[in-house]
Prior knowledge:
This protein is mainly beta. 24% of the residues are buried. Helix content is 11%, strand content 34%. The chain is built from 3 helices and 13 strands.
Amino acid sequence: MAEYDLLQLGYGSMQPMGHYNFFPNGGQGQPGCGKSLWSSLMTLDISGTSSDALGCSHFRAPILYADTVANPTCTFTAVQCENYEAFRRGQCFSCDNDQCQVFGLDVDVPVSLANQQRSYYFVTGSSTPFCELLYRVTIRQAYKLQSTEKGIMKIQLHGKSKSSSWIEYGSGSSEIVPGSTSTYVVSVPQSFGPVEAVHLTWEYDYSLLHPFAWLSSHTLHLEPRLELTLLQHPYGSTITLHNSCNF
């Protein structure tokens, strides 16, 4: 996996080289690799551990592969897509027509695809077992929203005995347009179990260009359904969890 900093220094490559090319978490910064680049340079830490910003993500590749052997029931389902951004926006979320592949020891390359080059994307956790369940969350804004709002939305998934941390829905602050539909792929550990409920929170993004915006009321209204689609190899199933949501 490629490891880059702000100056584009590092090692690894984002260039597809094999028949099947796997890019966990987009192929760059990996969950759990948290030490700052400056701190790693000052301590000359290139150990590949979670404290090493220079090598942690790079060395995650063989660790993930080894995890498929150590935890054979924990399956990494990867999806073919144009790029990681499109994958996280839910544009590639189907296992039809060989669009899904299992990463690791059990990878299967059909003879019909042996001469093709494909790129696959998936999401992992920060520690072993790294495999995650992938959910595509679709939210529709109601037309009665009076104006375009801008803010950060987060969701929390609830299972029978577990709750996820708050997961940022999308990438940072984004515009919320009346009548629009947004989709984003989130993940939880495979041990999480079936999702029974979803909580959402939204924070208005106050701008210095509009210093008095806080005086106005900022309310979101959602259409009757919030949909969760679980990606399962070789097919997905759609679960409708809520009939109405207002913020």
